[in-house]
Every structure is written in structure tokens, then in C-alpha cells.
Design a protein that fits this description.
Distance between the termini: 48 Å
Largest sheet: none
Number of strands: 0
Strand content: under 5%
Number of helices: 14
Radius of gyration: 20 Å
Shape: globular
Helix content: over 70%
Length: 301
Amino acid sequence: MEHFIHVLIHYLWEIVPALAIGFFISGIVHEAIPEDMVIKYLGSPGLKPIFYSTLIGALLPVCCWGSLPIAVSFSKKGAKLGPILAFLAATPATSISALIVSYSILGIGFTAFTFFAVIIIGLLLGVAGNNIKGVAPKASQEISCPHCSMKTGHDKLHGKKTVPQHITAALRYAFIDMPKEIGLELLIGLLLAAVVATFLPIGNFIKIYLGGWFGYAFSVVFGLVMYICSTASIPLIDSLLKQGMNTGSAMTLLLLGPIASYGTILVLRKEYGLKVLGIFLGALVFLTILAGMVFQFISSI
């Protein structure tokens, strides 16, 4: 139990700042970005909205936990499922800071391939998301207007908000409404991650079995059940490579691990249902294994 508490505190120390940033950005999105703008750039069909969300996600310096409230905010503003899935894949998989750390530890080959693989995976998941029929985010409880207790979206009837009112509304949405929306799922996901990290015996297993093709199976299982962020996972990947893990399996883990957190799984399940979650995870596993195999082939040339 003492080790579990230590691991949980470690995760909290790592995740809470990212969550705070994510919640804060979600408040800005909710208050400062008009709904018609979100619909224009992320709510229209085609590849362009998916590309926008993928590129923004790849450069945004937040992990999967921080990306969840931002994605939910975009969704409730009218963004289509495709850009949402692309954002949820690209944002945690890499960032500017992760690319810099990757370059310094793993080299230019790993870094360049990771960046372009994230873009391609985000685009493909986005296309898949836009082709899922009959799916919409579950409606959440409407936030009441502070002036008349009617539903929001008609504040202009009361005149323009002052700057302090905008700030108050953004902070309320970020740190009161959004935690109510997805806070329970995030907490459960964090507890699960701590339980797995505490009680799953992987030390000897890693040293013995990761030299061959079985490494891909390990990367999938490990990536799905463990929480690892894009930046913090790089020293782990470097350690596994030095112990004999093949480069393709390492790339699969580097891509899959940060995306497939318990938080992402539980929030997707709540907002879009099991169908979308199953397609997202299935496509993600397939694409990350394929990327790993391609990278292993390139590395062997």
C-alpha cells in the first residue's frame, strides 16, 4: 500500500499541472472562441479540419490528460468526431518539448519519424472518425445564464460581457463545469494507472522477452495498461532499446503509450460510446504496430 501511495503521488505530481493547463485552455476555448468559428474550422467535412486539429495537437505542450478537457470543449462547440479523434491522438503522442528530448536522447531518426507518424496517424484516425455514422457526443447538463437562469448561448441579449465577466466565466467553465463533466473518469483512470504500475511485475519480463517480434505484443499490452506521457516515456524507451528491445517495438510503444491512457478510454466511452471507443483503439493499435514495423524496416536498411 505504501508503494501504491508513492506511485499515486508521483502520478498526481506529473498529471495535475497538465490537467490544470488543459482545463484552463478549455475555459479559454469555451469563452473566447465563437461556436461558429469552431464549426467553420473543425465542424466541416473533409481533410482540412482533421489536418488543423492534428497539427495543433502535435505542437500543443499538453499530455493526454490535459488534452481531454480541450477535446470535450471543442466537441461541445460543434467540432466533428474526426477532428476530435485526431486531436486526441496527436496531442498526447508528441509535443515540441517531447521532440527536443527525443532528439537529444534517441537521435534525429527516431524524432523525425515520430513526428510524421503522429501526423499520419492523426489524419487516418480523423478520417475514420468522420466515417462513423450515427454518432454524436452525449449531451451534458446545460450551464445556466447568470442573468436569467436560461440556457447559455443567448448572453448577447443582455449586452456584451465585461472583461472580468469573461474571465470569471472562463474560470468557472474550466475549473467547475469541466471537472464535473469528466472529473470522475479522470480520477478513476488515474487510480487504475497507479494500481497497474504498483502491482504489475514487468522487470524481468522486459529483460528476457523483448528482443524479437514478441516485443510488439508487449508494446501493445504495456501501452494500453500503463500511463506514460510522451516526454517521460523517452528515457524508458531508451532504456528498453539498450536492453535489447527491437526498434520497431520501441516506436510502437512510444506512439501508443501516451495516447491510450485510461482517462482517454473512459472519457471517450462516456462522451461517444463503446462503438467509437472500439474503433479508436482498434485503429490505433493497428496503425502504431504498422508504424513500428515500417520504422524497423527503415532502420535495418
